[in-house]
Amino acid sequence: MGISPVTQPNAPVVTSKPDVTPVIQEAAKSKPQPAATDSVLISSAGKAALQEATESPAQTAQEARKGDAQAQRKLARAAAAEEAKESPATKAKEAQGA
User: What is the pLDDT of residues 45-86, one digit of tens each?
Assistant: First the structure.
């Protein structure tokens, strides 16, 4: 027995490319969806904290001169940090390689 080719006498012959125009037109007709957005509410305490954190040193000094206790504490911390950087003990440790 040999192998014989199989043929289908009534098989349709495809000679043209499929039509993609309706798909392209569908995509063009569809409206773009708006981007999802989230909204956030910031409390007044949060707003105040943000303002304090982002204010300039000049503004902090001005508020401290006017009696703002928080600004005074902030200036005191900054001064202490600056003094610690420049203290002789710190320089001695740096010279020793510690």
Answer: 999 899 888 999 999 999 999 999 999 999 999 999 988 888
HSE on the CB side for 70, CA within 13 Å?
7
Q: How many CB atoms lie within 10 A of CB 61?
A: 15
Neighbouring C-alpha atoms within 13 Å toward the C-beta of 39: 1
Alpha-carbon distance 61 to 71, whole Å? 7
Q: Give me the helices (H) in the chain, please.
A: 21-29, 44-54, 57-65, 69-86, 88-96
Where along the chain do its domains lie? 44-98
- Two tokens, residue 1: 């027995």
| Whole-angstrom distance, CA of residue 43 vs CA of residue 51 | 12
Residues 6+ apart with CB under 8 A from 70: 52, 63
